[in-house]
Amino acid sequence: MKKALFAGSFDPFTTGHDSIVRRALTIFDGVVIGVAVNGAKHSMYTVEERVEAIRRLYADDDRIEVVTCSGLTVEAARQAGASCLIRGVRTMADYEAERVMAHYNRRIGHMETLLLFTLPELEDVSSTAVKELMRLGYPTDEFIPHKDDNI
To answer: Which of the ends of the chain has fewer CB neighbours closer than 10 A, N or C?
Structure first.
């Protein structure tokens, strides 16, 4: 079974993230979503809350596993039995950052990275923007995936 790890802070998990997961499932037999523990970031939700929300979203799909991860992403991938890393790219800045990380992951961890470009209609969706909308009391339903969505 070919599995990939899709790791991130996912604070919150957006329709853009959901799109990447669903598209990765057309390439891999399974996707492990790694919710990163990052003490340097000021999170809106605890790691446990994020893991639980993502697990509920994919509860009916046994091809998706949700775990917490810390440290090197390639180590989390190995622990999860993943053979590849999945990363979403929205902008050229994302591309440059992910390109550098992909080289390190290959060099240090002998792990390939597959970059999936965000669908054009989701390019403006970011966890940071959604968090800000939430803090200001604006509706965010269109940016947060729901169990019956199929993006």
So the answer is: N
Which position among 17, 50, 87, 131 bears the catalytic label?
17
Query: How do residues 35-53 score in pLDDT, each as one tens digit?
Result: 999 767 778 999 999 999 9
pLDDT digits (tens, 9 = 90+) for 79-117: 999 999 999 999 999 999 999 999 999 999 999 999 999
Alpha carbon 87 to its chain's center: 7
Phi and psi for 69 in degrees, rounded to 5?
A: -145, 150
Q: Catalytic pick from 43, 50, 127, 131?
A: 127
**Residue 103 designated active-site:** no
Distances (CA, A) of 46 to 23, 71, 108: 27, 17, 30
The predicted model scores a pTM of 0.93
